[in-house]
Amino acid sequence: MASKETCRTELRAAVRHLSERGLSSAAKWAAEQLMGIEQDPSKHTPSHTRFQRGSSSIRRRFRTATPAEASGTPSAGVSYVMTPSLVVAEEYDYDLMDSDFYLLAKSYFDCREYRRAAHVLRDQTSKKAMFLRFYALYLAGEKRREEEMIELEGPLGKSDSANRELLSLERELSTLRKNGTIDPFGLYVYGLVLKEKGSENLARSVFVESVNSYPWNWSAWSELQTLCTTIEALNSLNLNNHWMKDFFLASAYQELRMHNESLAKYEYLQGTFIFSNCIQAQIAKAQYNLREFEQVEVIFEELLRNDPYRIEDMDMYSNVLYAKECFSALSYLAHRVFLTDKYRPESCCIIGNYYSLKGQHEKSVMYFRRALKLNKNYLSAWTLMGHEYVEMKNTSAAVDAYRRAVDINPCDYRAWYGLGQAYEMMGMPYYALHYFKKSVFLQPNDSRLWIAMAQCYETEQLHMLEEAIKCYKQAANCNDREAIALHQLAKLHSELGRTEEAAFYYKKDLERMEAEEREGPNMVEALMFLAQHCKTHKKFNEAEVYCTRLLDYTGPEKETAKSLLRGIRYARDVEHFPP
Fold first, then answer.
1. What is the pLDDT of residues 557-569, one digit of tens each?
2. Signal peptide: which range, if any (predicted)?
3. For 75, which DSSP code?
């Protein structure tokens, strides 16, 4: 990892370079990481420090920079991109920064008048101007494609409409790449074009060239990540050993469900970016996937204290509050994002979760649909809307929502799980089993998925009890929070006449219920079975203990326990005084 000062200098220059080119998301990401680096307290007064942890407000630092720092370049309009093996001297067209053509085009671009921006730059030959023209044309094509989809199919419909600028852009960018006259930003646009046309292998190579030449464009790294759907594809990348690579690997590991490896990377990055809210949010995401909800809640509470108007990732926080049934906290969060920006997909999903927890499923669906109108590829909205349709018993609509989710991301185990649930409701266990297997393959450490698959095996049509037992065993090994697996294992073994195995699992289940101080029918069932089992095997003292505990209940089990105790005493007398 480079020094803090090196990272700070590089990010400060990157924010300016990316902003000048209209790469707003990448500039925002770089600025957030810049503010995540701890300041040297010997050089800065408290009033110039950044986000203060544990504070309810954000204090921003304002520092007078040296001329070299202010420009972000060492000298003579040349920015030296530091990489481990080489120093790339990249010319930036500072004469163009004062060009009336570029300033006019950029103002049009900022107003989303992409074709006007491209037209202004049609005769400009500098790399910077050519990039903005390419990017403006690409976005103009995307804007028109979205308009056509709405006109033809409605905001949530499917459509075959395509970006009509791709062909001409591919031709021009391909020529520039062959001639060696394309810059890293042009390569980024070329990668976008290739990815949308389905040329994934070439797109991957082009994105690698882009990030190796200019490693601070997080948008390029993000696009590259979407093309690495397997660990083999990730390991095959020939990436320079820049510190930005660690951010990429941490994010890629997370998408590949390597959550512990991702956590290790982010914790390493925190050594430099100790105050980065982005890293904190990603750590929360990894913990969420590991179902460590208590830790996730603590992280998000701290994030909101430091950045009270933050909306990114807050829908994940709402999922945690929903799972824990924290009604008041979820209500407060929904009210908060509604006041901050109610027309954000994340806000709509949070409000949708709020209404779902209240049992108002129709209103919940309305907000999930609103999220999808704002961003039709917003994955969690499709999945959550599918869950709502399942609650409403509208299985056909649920199946459609889940299928849209897996079209967007085939690695979304929640959508596959939802499809399994929907087909199980329709009485089609073979289809349900297929989808449950998909979800378990993607998320093998989630006990809920193993339990769902086991219950599918138990259905009357399948009745594959041995397979169900295997699934329940997996669930028990995956920290079964709902405490279903042990009880079901005991019942299945009892049903199959395996009394020793049944007694083993009933004992384990009883120990767990005692540790968690839980009462209920499962405890009665376990005590009853163990009392009868011990009596049968002449373990009279143990059987008597279980029967005595049953006497504390008021139902029919009390009479059964009394009868068992009489039988135990008679059997004990016969044993000691045979006729």
1. 878 888 888 887 7
2. none
3. B
